[in-house]
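#random but structural
TW: two for the price of one
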Amino acid sequence: MKFNTFGKLSLASVLVSTALAAHAGISVENEKGLFTIGGDVEYDLNVVDKERKNQDRQDFSQSGRILVQIAAERAVANDHYLKVQVQPLLKSTGDVDLDDAFFAMGRQADWEVKIGRFEAFDMFPVGQDTMLDFAKVDVNNNVIEPYRLKDARGRGDYGQVSYAKSLDKLYFEVGSLFKENSGADQNAVFVRPVVAFQATDSLRFAAGMEANLTADKADAENDYLGYGATIKYAVSDFSLDVSYAYRDFDTTDQEDSSIGAVIQYKRFGLGHIYSETDTGSKEKMNTTWASYEIANVMDVQDFSIYLGSYFSKVDNDNDNDNDDQDVGVRVRFKYFF
């Protein structure tokens, strides 16, 4: 979501002055409930080497943003609540963007209805992804990510609605996402049901699917059925996530699949995704990333420096000249206020 120049400056000024006046990070409680304001700063120093059709290019850059989180929650009768949250992003490029912006109502440990802009259940976790990108690109050199059952997960510019229900160890969620399609069909509505089961304190299983309810031949790029599953095992300082996702297009012969594994041990994270696109010939991509957190910098509990890197390579069965490859390293400065 982008704003015009006047909107950028006005919003930035309001947020900065509000944070200063409120001594950012505070919580205020009154008869209408709990109001909080805080956020985080995230700035990166990046070095990336990209090989494209036998051309090698190195990119040196600095990127980042300041996220301001404003939230309010009001408790009502019988453990019910109303909740509002908004997270503007002030980017180092000068743009103003938006993460979450939603309204929710529900009952504690029971059900919730949410409307606005947000992220639904994560069916393909990537863990401590300090630096993660992919070598596969389209004809315009835009990055094409592996399919991870996240097309309808959320933070869409055209809105979404979800309903979630908890029953002991079982969690159910169904979300809908509205999209503007650039093709002939301008009315894409996705649905994404997910079921998760907490088998033990350490082990959780989840399965889900997503599909475009309005898809037809005029909307070939969104006319598919996707599904997947993920398993999480966590004990003490160790966690392991293993995920799988697959989609099959109805109007073309394309099939996409991905399998990934992520390990987190204390402050170290390691992940790998193998993805494949089959259109008669197969295109395969392997992507590996790693990250380490240096915590409590300058003895400040909320200040960390992350060291991250990734490697991604595409292999084409019929066109070895298009075997793109990326490698990158990053230093990230992260401070919560």
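TW: number two ↓
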Amino acid sequence: MISFFCSEFLFNENDMDVEIITVGDELLIGQVVDTNSAWMGRILNENGFEVVRKTTVGDAEDAIIAAVDAAKKRTPAVLMTGGLGPTNDDVTLRALCRYFGSGMYFSEETYASIEQLFGRNGRQINELTRRQAMVPDNAKIIQNGVGTAPCTWFEQDGFVLVSMPGVPSEMKWLMTNEVTPRLKTHFRQDVFFIRHRNYWVSGYTESALAMHLSGFEDGLPPFVRLAYLPQQGIIRLRLSAYCRQETDAETAMAGLCRQLEEKLQGHIITDEDKNLEVIVGERLRRLGATVATAESCTGGAIAALLTSVPGSSDYFKGSIVAYANQVKQTLLGVSAGDLNAHGAVSREVVEQMARGALKMLDSDFAVATSGIAGPGGGTDGKPVGTVWIAVAAGDGRVMSEFYRFGTFREQNIQRTVNMSLLLLNRAVSPASPPSTASV
């Protein structure tokens, strides 16, 4: 147990610890991706709790009991999701009743909640659904406002376990409206004010950035942490302060952020915790400008990312996925002579692709990609990972960059997407930091 000071307050690092346990065979075999724990972790952290461990177990009573028992020895609170349905493979509630020595009873209040829900949806309650009103007799029952399985709150020897349905919409409703407020009240002496500041940084590898910031990191007070979250070609830095008083956290962060920004001058893309596609979209919207893409090696991935943002129809015009040279010529106006002389993966061709998309799709900006994603197709002169990116603007500017990435196809595509968005961001906002192009 590590103790440290934040202003005049002494606290223990594990006072606010929470563990998450997700239940379901489908999570273990990869049939369903666990998005619940990621969402819960963010909400808990925003409210002063720190998730220190996430565990996934299958639909087996003994496995659930073992996970709960191990967590109880480490942390004061556990949040669980999954395994509360009415079918035989949902065994979470049985396991928890065994662990906490609980009997079951039919809850008229829970049944009335289910009746109300089914009445709104015009459905009939069957016997399996009726079973959802059977609840533990030694737990607090929290009614589910959007589903049939209630939430249960167990307490034993200072330990709290909250079990919620695994359906994301039901879990989110319960966390937002019931569980988080109750946790904050129950653990009010142990909850911290947590402040994060995120920076997107380009122009460094992770190791080079760590070396550049080593002096800054060494000088951090013990209640502040710096985390490196690398993606393909860019790095997100997260500076976090954990304090008993909100003013302490705010004061600490203000001074440290100024120092960090001075150290990273010229390399910060944004200090907002937003993805590149959101940042670019917001800047396009402020300009009242539009964008199009002409993609070869990325196969439409840039367009897919840009259009994943709600409201992107305000600025996204369209995309031409020009995988074949014939399409580059007929739709984007790429010169057959340049294709023969320089090859599809060349400055000449990618710049013509960008200009062609600008004209064909009548946009203010266009980003184009051409490369060898792999695993085959490389040559001695242009090995796998060779990529050209270009951005054309309606004012006549054309910016292009050359990269040599690695040998793994998925990484090459993702890095090309990220570098394309960075180059587009520079074109839209000329003061943005440069990316690191390999020439």
